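#lab-general

N.A. 3:47 PM
ok so I finally got the sequence cleaned up, no stray characters, all 137 residues accounted for. can someone with queue access submit it? mine expired

B.Y. 3:52 PM
send it over

N.A. 3:53 PM
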Amino acid sequence: MRARESVIASVLFVAACGGQSVTNLTDAGSDAAPLTPCGAYAQAYCAKRQSCSNGTLITRDWGDMSTCLARQELSCTNTLAAPRTGKTTADVEQCSGGIPSSSCADFLDGNLPAGCSPTGPGAAGAPCSFNAQCASG
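B.Y. 4:20 PM
back already:
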């Protein structure tokens, strides 16, 4: 239960910092805090990864679902905050909305829906911390 409380606390922190909120996809109807766009993305991404692998990819890559959620939300938040990023909140929302209807083959092959792979202004060979900072993606 501690890991879930940690995820909820991080969602509350991000929401308190002015993030737009959306409905919690896994706790609909519960008293859980609304999710930020990155929280919704994390839920869509981790749920799809779990459903496409019967949970084995979640266990292999993160150990458990709460760690997947926390890491994906953090990565999304950091990408949005990165200098010269091409990723926007609108991209995150478009990506989150498209993930559930993606086929498992496409999802696991990295053929993600629109909004999931924006590019940035960094030229070929330029240093980038996130794919969304580079023109090559």
